[in-house]
Specification:
The complex is a heteropentamer, with 2 copies of chain A (365 residues), 1 copy of chain B (336 residues), 1 copy of chain C (383 residues) and 1 copy of chain D (430 residues). Chain B has 336 residues and is mostly helical. Chain B is 76% helix and 0% strand. The longest helix of chain B has 38 residues, at 44-81. Chain D starts with 13 loop residues before the first helix and ends with a helix. The chains are: A alpha+beta (365), B mainly alpha (336), C alpha+beta (383), D alpha/beta (430). Chains B and C meet through helix 1, helix 2, helix 4, helix 5 and helix 6 of B and helix 1, helix 2, helix 4, helix 5 and helix 6 of C. The structure holds adenosine-5'-triphosphate (2 copies) and magnesium ion (2 copies). The site of one magnesium ion has 4 residues of chain E, from helix 1.
Chain lengths: 365, 336, 383, 430, 365
């Protein structure tokens, strides 16, 4: 029911500015995920939207109304706090019922909604307990339950699943997704560190860094077309491998080559000169194949290998003082440490970034 | 004068240092005698058991000793006295209690005391809570707090003069020097001798104690209020609770324990209340209370037996509160 | 909560007004005392303190100079002078008989008989003119009605502070009060910690006993204790009355409340922090000193305020446990002694109430800082 | 620094001082702790007396007082750390201390001396004699510093302005009272308020009327409750008080104000303009509550609360006072009692203010002002002297039920009921 | 330096038993990860090992010494609490220094260790701050830093990375792994909900469920040979697909077939009768291929598809009221909802479970 529009939102604690002017336009019904390194200001931004922090600059519009001075309770939001913020003196049931009681919902309605939320979150056996007698994950679920019991225009979730086990997390994630679908008008803003969550839930992802928006886009845009080095490395796990390369343009074709490595030819429509000089080449671990020496762009030895069952992650030292290259190969190969391997990035999956770290659109020839 | 200041400083330092020394010293000693630092030593577990058993008593030691000597011993002494005659020369059994039951003054006091018990703790806690909560939200809150606190800091003699200037009664027609009567006259009513109107005068005396104790309640509750996790209040704000709802549903329940403590403390002050009644009416005009009655028998009547019996009654009245505190402490223990 | 948006609502006004009202109600009586303390002793009993704030019309009695001051002017004997003792006052009416104190308007001439006439002008000047030499050694009483502007004096404070030994009594009071505040806090804090966070048999019972001890009337304990002191004093050959004795007494009398308040507060601290310290290798002693104590500052400070105040304002215990002579006389004792034996010196009381209140208020102000908000913020999650 | 330099002022009996000094030189270096009721201005006065004792003996006297001295003396005595010498105004309390064995008998010599040297000596001896722990009566307390109670204070100029004369009999006093009312004035200022001791001024009234309506013998029996409070004699005395106090027209502020007006405030009405009242019955100490600058004998004066002409009871005088007693028998304490026997110990205080003494050997010229002297003369001229009855009664009555009863009476309760109530309270402590 | 041995450890809160007799033998230097659904007792078990909970039964031996009565401070442990449990009145530095100060470490040593831990955890700019001025992730890092600053015999980590962003999480995970390697004698016990963490860090994983140990084994054992249905479904994300099948034995060969589906032939050495009757067939999403109709074991329509960039997750409804089958296929295919697909599990990756849910060792023929 509500769109959220942030224009130049700033927030400072004392001298220290945490948010440096955030512009963001969230359409009604959209599911937006905030991601970014720890401490980049996600929670602060969420709290600012909720009205829990008075912003020091800019405006927050909810549903087209400038809401800077509208109290949180009038903004039509529900929020899951990163630290849960459960009411310690109330049972789980009462924690969930509180918001509804405040809005004078009829008793049956309250009971119905609590029963439903408890069911989804597998909290039914704990409804009569106090928060202090719950496990970490259970507390977190109560916090989620409290939010979804209400019927807000905007949902704000601050890392709501971080303490849940994988199965429950998937289940809850799906529930949230369903919730989102069943309430097409409800806007959801969601903070997470979990790539999977971000990718699966988001209509759009907002990448924050040090109080600035780095990129906004659909998950696939971010994954396939990261706007800059930071986003490229931040999205995807393990992170994209970055190798410094030297580019030189000749005859309308650029040639980029890692130090002492084979050169790739590339072209771009956004001004060939951007492919000259020191560049960074990025390639995701899952886009690197183990190949014969002949086809290899890099060669090195495996310094460390992780078996995850379905895939294996290799850390390949390519020497020259570079970061090891991480390679993710499907299946179980039991590659031991110390083995020499030859690596080639898949052609379509090569990213190039200029000296400032901004992505350069290109085709590898 | 400087000499005096220096001696004072030294005595103060000795006093404070002595008690610090006790705690540090005994704890050090305990760890010395029963070492269990390196978990490997064969006696470690045993030593640990001993130290865990002993240490609480080290911590409690001075307090228990002081309470024992200064309060528990006198309590037993009082109990003994209550079974003796006026100058403790003959054992009289429960005569003093029997006398109490038949004494009109005692009945009046008990009745008044119950009135006090109903009104004062509730009102003082209520106003204290109001003061604590409301002053937290305004920029001049600290000043307001200090002003509300002031009655606590005024010595009792001062307070009795203050209230003289409030309740003073001059005949209708002459100039009132008590502000209450001045106000009443200004409104066009007859002035009243407030503290001399039976039954009602109790309330006027209660007002004084409420006036004093509100500062106490405010300070303690203010400390408790500030311990409430702010996020819970933020969550409630988001849950759509208004200020009143936050106050009643979120803040009050979280400091309920402290409210109970404040209430209990003031209740006990009320049970003991003596100086206000003593200074304002000395129990006349039917305003007697147990505390003053006891004082009266002890130091006016020199009847230690009866005075002690009244004291015992006062102490017995506190048992319900003790029981509820045992309950609460037990419930807490279950929690962790 | 401070940062929350949109909180400047009508409610804020309601809050301001309620607090104002509360504060007004609570300060009004004290304000009366304060104003009274600057008033003249005799005024206190005859007019309300609030009248001292505005110009008030008062019926006063003055006395003309005696016969020895008369001068002969033009064959008439004249006594002249002024009735008023301060600027800004005006006389509106006067009289010479107590029954008719306002018979004449200012400036009129009153016939005193015997050929004597009296007039008082608005500025207070009076003239008695007589045909004959005026006899009698007392001056004529003159009743007059005057508008008196507010007038305050520091006399009451002067007499309180100027009394000999006030300085020493002040130091004595501090000598009694400071250790009597600090020692019980320490003792109680340790005990409260044990009762809140250590497990041992009989804990709940002990807590209840302490609550029970809150009710023990002080007066009851004085005789047994003093007897004990005397015995110890006689045994050890030291004076039974002294500072150590009173410290211990004040400590013990303050302990039940201290333990009760502190334990309640400490029990509310998040257990995980304490567990965390245990895991970090801290002993109970370390935990108490480094974790619990700093986090209990609000409770410690509030108790300190009260204990300080009680001890500071205490007289009874001081009188019983300290030698009553000047060397160990506390401030309250000093002030009470300033009052006459029959205790009606309200002007002393009013001023001394404010002299004694200063230190507790300072303590309150300085300790109020410790009643901090959000001390526990950020320590645990999960509420 | 001595108040009056020895040998300089002829009014003083310096010889007694020198003699005392000579006899007690051996005490030098000893200390004497002393506990008394005097504070504030009074303390300065008592210190001026003690200075002479110090000067004479070299004893270091440590005097102290407190608001709660009654309570404190009990605590200290019970606990075993009493002062060497205590001076108290309540015979009832002294009796209690004596009966518990906390006091040292002053001995036959002193008893004899009192009988001989105090005017109406026998009554002073009996005032200071109590039953000890052994049950035998002995002199335990030495009366020193007396207050007169039966005084009516007034403003001579107001009387003169209105043309009133000083009444010589109770009948005249009542007539004057009614005349003042007829003139449109209020005759009396009465205030019973006294914080925790509210009610006591009324007991003085009742005692005065007991002495004026009954024989001293009945008074003595009343004080020991041989005559009951509910006795018509007592009830009658109470009602006499009621004649004055319970008539709205007679009292400033009306009868309702009597109970709550503070006794310290009540005399101020005498000096108001116009006067709020013309008379105020109160003891000799009351001038300290007169407005500042009031000159005794000129601005304010007193007359003896007259006796009934119709009853042949002479001129009874009611008084109160303090008594000194030894709580620790040391040479210095003994010496102090001896000191009190010297005229100089009386004269020095007389010469200042607020001190009356029945000691016959003092020079009455030493009284510091005419009013004091006049009081001294009343004291010496009394045909009957009686000590304040409420102070003689057990504390629970004299400082309890009696007060309460009087407050109730002022509030409108019937005298008979009040008497019965007080009697009931008395029965309860027997 | 320390082995940890739990024998029959029980813990009850009042009437309610949370741990039902846990037996576990952790060798010194081992890295053991506890996993299990939220509320299964992981934190409780950790707290029991730390000595923070008095167990109600059984014994805890640390380094061969029965430690039930040894206080936490003497057990030589360090612990990261799920709820951080920071000292709110101490700065980050003091929080980390506290344990060291308690053990009277020299000042330089303290500084050195703090500097190192802060560096690893990227906390250096926050050392002077109080916890309340930190973000959720920063608080969590302080909690970790506090533990690793000390030099305990046993590390206990309770979901230490749940609030960290992916990059930091990987980095910290690697640091913890390194820490583990650099201190071969230090035993680590680690609770996590993150499969990747569990898989990569653990020498052995302990799967808990409702207060019981379900399986203990190396990550690969758990992944490839789950002992029962629960473990099978719990390990791996998305969870293993379970399809009820009917088994019948004839001629020493079992034939298992999903309802109305093609039959597979199987053999087992653990008693062929175990393959008769109702069984469950399990196959991990990543072990299902999209195949032609002929080779398919199941067919169905895609009800929902998630794009994660490198892989795509399909939810395939195979009808007959069964749970949809989840399929994870590498790459980006943009398969729309509603498309019909045919699925075949990879042969070696089929798990069979008997009616009780216990795994049946077998070969698919
Ligand atoms: N104080 C308590 N009183 C009663 N039950 C409790 C208490 N503390 C925890 N429990 C219950 O014990 C069970 C185990 O809790 P524990 O904290 O060990 O779970 P966990 O495995 O750590 O879960 P999570 O992954 O959610 O943190 C939970 O069901 C919880 O509700
Ligand atoms: N009260 C405060 N005072 C000063 N700085 C603060 C305060 N609260 C947070 N910060 C700082 O603001 C920054 C942003 O905090 P925020 O909680 O928004 O981070 P976040 O993105 O949610 O991080 P995380 O993922 O770790 O939760 C952090 O660097 C934090 O240290
Ligand atoms: Mg955050
Ligand atoms: Mg847990």
């Amino acid at each position: 029911m509500a769109s959220v529009k942030l224009s130049g939102v700033r927030k400072a604690y004392g001298e220290m500015e945490i948010l440096h002017g955030i512009d963001l336009d969230i359409k009604k019904g959209e599911f937006v995920v905030f991601v970014g390194p720890s401490g980049c200001g996600k929670s602060t931004l969420l709290r600012a939207i909720a009205g829990l922090e008075q912003v020091t600059g800019g405006t927050i519009e909810i549903d087209g109304i400038v809401s800077n001075d509208i109290p949180p309770s009038k903004r039509g939001i529900a929020m899951v706090f990163q630290s849960y913020a459960l009411y310690p003196h109330m049972t789980v049931r009462d924690n969930m019922a509180f918001g509804l009681r405040m809005s004078r919902s009829p008793k049956e309605e309250i009971d119905r909604r609590i029963a439903k939320a408890a069911d989804i979150l597998q909290l039914t056996p704990y409804l009569h307990r106090l928060p202090k007698a719950l496990s970490g994950g259970q507390r977190q679920r109560v916090a989620i339950g409290r939010a979804i019991c209400r019927d807000p225009k905007v949902f704000l979730f601050d890392e709501p699943l971080s303490n849940l086990d994988a199965a429950l997390r998937v289940a809850t994630r799906i529930e949230i997704a369903k919730l989102n679908e069943s309430m097409p008008d409800t806007t959801m803003i969601y903070v997470t560190h979990d790539q999977v969550e971000a990718m699966t839930l988001a209509d759009r992802i907002v990448v924050l860094r040090g109080g600035n928006v780095e990129q906004v886009g659909t998950p696939m845009e971010l994954y396939h077309k990261p706007a800059n080095l930071f986003v490229a490395q931040f999205i995807g796990s393990p992170a994209m491998n970055i190798v410094p390369v030297e580019g030189s343009v000749a005859n309308g074709v650029a040639s980029v080559a890692p130090k002492g490595g084979r050169a790739l030819s590339a072209k771009t429509e956004s001004g060939m000169e951007r492919l000259a000089g020191p560049l960074s080449l990025g390639v995701r671990p899952e886009n690197i194949d183990l190949v014969d020496e002949a086809k290899a762009l890099f060669s090195g030895t495996v310094t460390y290998a992780e078996q995850l069952g379905e895939v294996e992650i290799l850390y390949v030292d390519i020497g020259a003082g570079e970061q090891p290259i991480v390679v993710k190969i499907p299946g179980y190969h039991a590659i031991e440490r110390g083995r020499g391997v030859h690596l080639a990035p898949q052609k379509g999956a090569i990213h190039l970034f200029d000296a400032k770290g901004n992505a350069v659109e290109h085709q590898i020839l | 004068m400087t000499q005096q200041v220096i001696t004072a400083t030294i005595t103060i330092l000795i006093g404070v240092a002595g008690s610090i020394l006790y705690f540090v010293g005994t704890n050090w000693l305990l760890d010395r005698i029963f070492p269990f630092r390196d978990g490997a030593s064969p006696n470690a577990a045993r030593n640990h058991r001993i130290t865990t058993a002993v240490r609480p008593w080290l911590f409690l030691g001075p307090a228990l000793l002081a309470l024992g000597v200064y309060l528990i011993y006198p309590v037993f002494e009082t109990l003994r006295l209550s079974l003796y005659n006026r100058d403790t020369t003959a054992f009289v059994g429960f005569d003093n209690y029997a006398w109490l039951v038949g004494d009109a003054g005692f009945r009046e006091s008990i009745l008044n005391n119950f009135m006090w018990l109903l009104v004062v703790p509730t009102a003082a806690t209520f106003f204290g809570l109001m003061a604590a909560v409301l002053t937290d939200r305004i920029w001049w809150g600290n000043i307001a707090k200090s002003l509300v606190f002031m009655p606590m800091a005024i010595s009792f003699v001062g307070a009795s003069v203050i209230w003289k200037f409030v309740y003073d009664y001059r005949a209708a027609g002459s100039e009132q020097i008590g502000i209450l009567n001045a106000f009443v006259v200004w409104l066009g009513f007859e002035p009243q001798a407030w503290i001399a109107v039976p039954v009602w005068n109790n309330f006027f005396l209660m007002v004084i104690l409420i006036w004093i104790q509100t500062g106490f309640a405010m300070v303690i509750l203010s400390a408790a209020l500030r311990g409430i996790p702010e996020e819970t209040m933020e969550a409630a704000v988001i849950d759509g609770a208004n200020d009143f709802q936050i106050f009643f549903h979120i803040m009050v329940p979280q400091i309920w324990g402290t409210i109970a403590v404040v209430w209990t403390t003031i209740t006990i002050v009320v049970l003991k209340v003596f100086d206000i009644v003593f200074a304002m009416t000395n129990g006349q005009w039917n305003s007697q209370v147990l505390g003053n009655l006891m004082y009266d028998w002890m130091f006016r009547g020199f009847d230690f037996g009866r005075g002690a019996a009244i004291a015992i009654v006062i102490m017995v009245l506190v048992t319900p509160i003790m029981i509820s505190n045992i309950r609460r402490a037990k419930a807490e223990t279950k929690g962790h | 909560m401070d940062g929350i948006a949109g909180r400047k609502s009508a409610l804020t006004w309601a809050v301001h007004i309620s607090v104002l009202l509360l504060v007004a109600l609570w300060t009004l009586p004290t304000a009366g005392l304060l104003i009274s303390s600057f008033r003249d002793k005799d005024q206190l009993a005859v007019s309300g303190w609030w009248t001292a704030l505005t110009t008030s019309t008062q019926n006063l009695v003055g006395r003309a100079d005696g016969a020895e001051k008369q001068v002969e002017v033009d064959g008439k004997f004249v006594i002249a002078g002024n009735l008023l003792d301060g600027p800004g006052q005006t006389v509106t009416a006067f009289g010479y008989r107590s029954q008719e104190p306002t018979k004449f308007k200012a400036g009129e001439i009153a016939d005193l008989g015997d050929g004597r006439g009296l007039t008082v002008t608005a500025d207070g000047d009076y003239i008695i003119e007589s045909d004959l030499r005026i006899e009698g050694d007392r001056g004529q009483r003159i009743f007059y009605t005057a508008a008196i502007p507010p007038r305050f004096s520091l006399d009451n404070y002067r007499s309180v502070l100027g009394s000999g030994g006030a300085g020493r009594a002040f130091v004595n009071s501090l000598t009694v009060t400071i250790p009597s505040t600090i020692i019980p806090i320490m003792v109680a804090a340790f005990a409260a910690y044990a009762l809140a966070w250590m497990r041992f048999p009989g804990r709940a019972l002990l807590i209840a006993v302490i609550v029970g001890l809150l009710v023990v009337p002080l007066q009851l304990s004085l005789i047994p204790l003093l007897t004990l002191y005397n015995k110890i004093g006689a045994f050890a050959g030291i004076p039974a009355k002294g500072y150590v004795g009173i410290w211990l007494a004040h400590m013990a009398f303050g302990l039940p409340l201290a333990i009760y308040l502190l334990r309640n507060y400490m029990a509310g601290l998040p257990g995980e922090i304490i567990e965390s310290a245990r895991v970090d290798g801290a002993s109970d002693f370390d935990i108490f000193i480094r974790i619990v104590l700093p986090l209990s500052f609000p409770a410690l400070a509030s108790f300190a305020i009260f204990q300080f105040l009680w001890v500071w304002n205490d007289l009874l215990v001081a009188l019983v446990f300290l030698a009553p002579q000047k060397e160990q006389l506390v401030l309250t004792g000093q002030l009470v002694n300033l009052m006459g034996s029959r205790g009606g010196d309200w002007e002393i009381l009013t001023a001394s109430a404010f002299v004694t209140i200063v230190v507790p208020l300072l303590v309150f102000f300085s300790l109020q800082r410790f009643l901090v908000r959000g001390l526990l913020a950020g320590s645990v999650k999960g509420g | 620094e001595l108040m009056f330099k020895p040998g300089e002022d002829a009014r003083f009996n310096w010889k007694s001082f020198e003699d005392f000094k000579a006899a007690n030189a051996a005490l030098k270096g000893q200390t004497l702790t002393m506990f008394g009721p005097w504070r504030g201005e009074d303390e300065k006065l008592v210190q001026s007396i003690l200075d002479y004792f110090r000067d004479a003996t070299g004893v270091d006297v440590k005097y102290s007082s407190s608001e709660n001295y009654e309570q404190q003396i009990v605590i200290d005595a019970q606990a075993g750390s009493p002062p060497d010498v205590a001076i108290l105004p309540q015979p009832g309390l002294i009796a209690d201390l004596a009966s518990k064995g906390f006091l040292t008998a002053l001995g036959d010599d002193t008893q004899k001396w009192l009988g001989e040297n105090y005017a109406a000596g026998a009554s002073w001896v009996s005032l200071g004699s109590y039953k000890g722990k052994d049950g035998a009566a002995a002199l335990y307390a030495f009366p020193y510093k007396i207050d007169l109670k039966s005084l009516v204070w007034y403003s001579p100029e107001n009387f003169k302005d209105a043309g009133y004369a000083i009444p010589q009999t109770m009948e005249e006093l009542k007539a004057l009272t009614e005349k003042i009312v007829a003139d449109g004035g209020k005759p009396w200022c009465i205030g019973l308020g006294s914080g925790g001791a509210t009610g006591w001024p009324a007991t003085d009234w009742v005692e005065d009327f007991m002495l004026r309506t009954q024989s001293p013998d009945i008074y003595d029996k009343w004080v020991t409750n041989e005559v009951k409070f509910s006795d018509p004699a007592v009830v009658g005395a109470i009602e006499e008080f009621g004649w004055f106090a319970r008539n709205d027209k007679f009292v400033d502020g009306g009868a309702a104000a009597v109970g709550t007006t503070d006794f310290r405030d009540s005399p101020k009405g005498l000096f108001a303009s116009p006067p709020k009242c013309y008379m105020h019955r109160q003891a000799s100490f009351i001038p300290s509550f007169f407005p500042e600058g009031t000159k005794l004998g000129e601005d304010a004066d007193f007359f003896y609360l007259p006796a009934y002409a119709g009853k042949d009871l002479g001129k009874p005088v009611l008084g109160a006072g303090t008594l000194a007693m030894i709580m620790k028998d040391t040479p210095a304490s003994r010496a102090f009692i001896e000191f009190l026997k010297t005229p100089i110990a009386h004269e020095v205080w007389m010469a200042q203010s607020g001190f009356l003494t029945p000691l016959k050997t003092v020079n009455v010229e030493a009284y510091g002002n005419p009013a004091l002297k006049k009081q001294g003369e009343i004291l010496l001229g009394a045909t009957t002297f009686r000590f304040d009855g409420s102070d003689l009664m057990p504390g629970k009555i004299g400082a309890g039920a009696f007060w309460t009863g009087m407050v109730d009476y002022a509030g409108g309760k019937a005298a008979a009921d009040v008497g019965a109530d007080i009697q009931k309270a008395w029965d309860a402590i027997k």
